[in-house]
Amino acid sequence: AGAFRVPSCPRPWCALPPPRVGVGAPGMAAEGPVLVAAAELPAFAAPADLVIATYFFAFQLYCDFSGYSDMAIGLALMLGFTFPLNFDSPYKAASLIDFWRRWHVTLSSFLRDYLYIPLGGNRRGDLRRYVNLMITMVLGGLWHGASWNFMLWGAMHGVGLAVNNAVRSDAGIRVVPLPSSLVGMSTCLFVVLAWG
């Protein structure tokens, strides 16, 4: 009675993070001398170095956030708790809506459940849906830090989500159907540019 009990993990291998090919590579490459110089002195960097630095920065963010989440999930499993998957290959997203279903799932769910839906979500017409998306994403940006950069990042994603929703709905916006690979690459490009 009252003795300290060490929790057991019935399947210790379940606490291992999911395998990721080359997880460390983007993080290491993003801190390489050419890319650090491109980030610190962009006016003196070659355009190709800036493009490469931007993409490596995006993958470094993913590896950092996903890695921390994987460690938390693994540690929780060793203690007998189950945490939800927090990153589901977000850069493979087929649209910006899909990206936000895959990127930082717990934060996305929080923003949806405690900001977007209480604001009215998509229940009050298309225009109100777009306004609610903008408010939610700008506040999500502000949550990351009290900086115009984060607010701009949130506004970019708010506009992107509004456009994505308008194209998907019957809002009268018609676009030429594009191959899914091109749409996926466009989504990734938008997300990467928004990080910059």
Could you characterize what this model shows?
By secondary structure, this protein is an all-alpha fold. It is 62% helix and 0% strand. Helix 3 packs across helix 8 (180-195). The radius of gyration is 20 Å and the shape is globular. Residues 1-7 and 20-26 have low confidence and may be disordered.
Radius of gyration: 20 Å
The average pLDDT is 82
Number of helices: 8
Please indicate the percent range of residues in DSSP E strands (runs of 2 or more).
under 5%
- Biggest pleated sheet: none
- Measured between the Cα atoms of the first and last residue, the distance is 57 Å
**What is the H/E order?**
HHHHHHHH
Query: Count of DSSP E strands?
Result: 0
Shape: globular
Q: Specify the helix fraction band.
A: 55-70%
Strand pairing plus helix content: what structural class? mainly alpha
Residue windows where pLDDT falls under 50 for at least 5 positions: 1-7, 20-26
Q: Keywords for this structure?
A:
8 helices; 0% strand; disordered N terminus; 196 residues; mainly alpha
Topology:
Elements: H1 24-30, H2 33-40, H3 47-78, H4 96-102, H5 105-116, H6 126-144, H7 148-168, H8 180-195
Helix pairs in contact: 1-3, 2-3, 3-8, 5-6, 6-7, 7-8
State the gist of this model.
The protein has 196 residues and is mainly alpha-helical. The protein has 8 helices and no strands.
